[in-house]
């Protein structure tokens, strides 16, 4: 369950006929129409219901949004809205303990919840035959939950949420920044003056009485919106909603909250020496307006104009001219009762934040003097059109947005006004809000610097108060002192809520038709026609990636992916960025261990022009020396940040132990400080010359354009001349031949990161599908054994998972978690016990659940353009048959328990699993002796290459 969310999606969906235009002026005639029909009605108990029918895929999404977030909490009980969100996944009277998670997983569905300052939302996406079962479960949580709350459940969930806070705040670089900002921006007692996740002390003090009070006050039907989107029959859906929700009480009226904007009478400066940070960080915050205030849209646009793109004034000054940081950001964030405008950057090593602030002010002065162009406004506005279509590509997005807009505006179709207000923002509006809220106004600034670098903070800064929990062995108490299964009196109901609803109808779906072709130079083409939206999504993938890097200069491929976007032979970086922006398109290049991918997304009508630009990017790189130096500095900056991140350290050490230091995969894809520092622009040119060829490339397309038209569009790429690309060979030399534990000391770590695994397949990945099936019950999601035991039963962690990561020549098995520091040994022991016994304990029921869940979840594989593109990329990258999903399903149906156990024994052999732990050495290292894994091998976290005494 997700920690916080401000907005899950940017723009919501609508019920009326909407007209969007990509023209430069918002007053010109619309050229495209988009419609999304919905029906809204209200039950007698006040529950507002929004229904949207979309029969394109056999799936349905349900979202219930309660109008309560952390802004409704009491001082001394902070974090309670988020904590309560967690509690609701535990139990309810008729569904039963742990069954909500179990049932959704067995249905092949997905689920989650989220809490923000202003709302709590719960959502599920399942095959459409399971709609009634989901409504039964959600209604049970809404009206039949509170009697099931027990001391055991309360104390267990406290540990889970505390783990979440430690993982996301206490054990993360700059994790305390939000706490410092909110505490000092808003007056004491203001509903936004504390983090959504709240205080550990407040959480520990929570009682069952607090839970009951919160539930009775805010979880009535009258304080909620239920949205259902997908493959539904409207009349049938209404019957089910009435059946399960109509008898639930409305609850007390929840008083609306009036705007309470922050007010600063002076500029406030705070600093913190962050033991997890390697680089100085500055953020400046100006109070603005609440959401849907008339000034919000101009403030949103102001943020983009100040820092988005190479033409923006703050980028020009901070990044290009003064070279103080790899990037700079500015954005407006408006909540229900207040808003802020944030400007900041994470500087290069050793940069004085006073210089960075001066540069930001210089950028603002540049903005005031030079302003911005009509083209700049047009670029932002045309991006809004593309964003609307992308935002409604899944039924989940539709359901959430319908619920959210209904809750906060009373109109599920508010997108019509939202987009119109964006398109109607004028130059005068932008300058007005800049002068009103930013220019010469007081602000709050935070300087977060590495320990011992106080001299870099803003002059006049006051040391911030930061609450850090000490590591105390046994401090969490023993859950065994509480009774698990407490008897309770069931709430009377007009229907038989103990009866589990049956699935409704036959679940059937037809996979999309995939067609293939090939250019004369050998580049393969994969195509899916999909016209639900007027969009085009495509990619060009080249095999190679980091695998083709010089081992002494790892990071070339990663630098090259950035370099390709820095202009073309015919366009400067600014001109390229502007050309894409005016088309409302997004194009990006990414690299991985084994491939480089150029990806594009645009309106279908702009596809040809976007592809022309991509052709330039691919075939006519600019090789700008100045941009190369900037990119290289940015890469080193990122590596410095990752070197302070316990998760990144664990991943780096894990890979080097698995592969041996001479294997290319033992290195991070980004490279190391040493390797990247040695890379020159000529190295990138050499990589491009030797390894970019249509012979190792594939083109993938999904969208509202026929294959013939796509093939015609690709004709210019036939000028790309093929060449032979040489792939090196590497020998795997795992640093141990038996199970062994490796320990990295990270002083004062509040969480311990645990990575466990082995190289499971070295000679191809033909067994990848079977291995993934065998892992499903162990660690694939919230219904797995690892999640159940480490989180739900023990409360050691926020999550525990396992799985296989495929490469072209094999796969790696890995299980992992981040656990609270004072149960590191207990977590390792539990992992070991579960892994040692998984094959033996695998049951007929496990096999049945695995088969049913995977087969049903496959119905969700074909919904979004992104998922369809992913299927095409899998086919080309791993040389799979076009119908590999159906073939895998056939194999799955035929598998028996003996075959599953054989795969488990072969690829998860507990006798040669590597254990890597990153945690606090002074409190945890000695406790890891006698685990049955040998004495821990201690590794220095600051070393880029392992030095292991075997």
Automatic annotation (TrEMBL):
Residues 49-165, 536-656 form the Peptidase M16 N-terminal domain. Keywords: Signal. This is Peptidase M16. InterPro entries: Metalloenz_LuxS/M16, MPP/UQCRC_Complex, Pept_M16_N, Peptidase_M16_C. Gene3D superfamilies: Metalloenzyme, LuxS/M16 peptidase-like. Pfam families: Peptidase_M16 (PF00675), Peptidase_M16_C (PF05193). Residues 206-381, 678-853 form the Peptidase M16 C-terminal domain. It comes from Roseivirga spongicola. Residues 1-22 form the signal peptide. It comes from the Bacteria. GO terms for molecular function: metal ion binding.
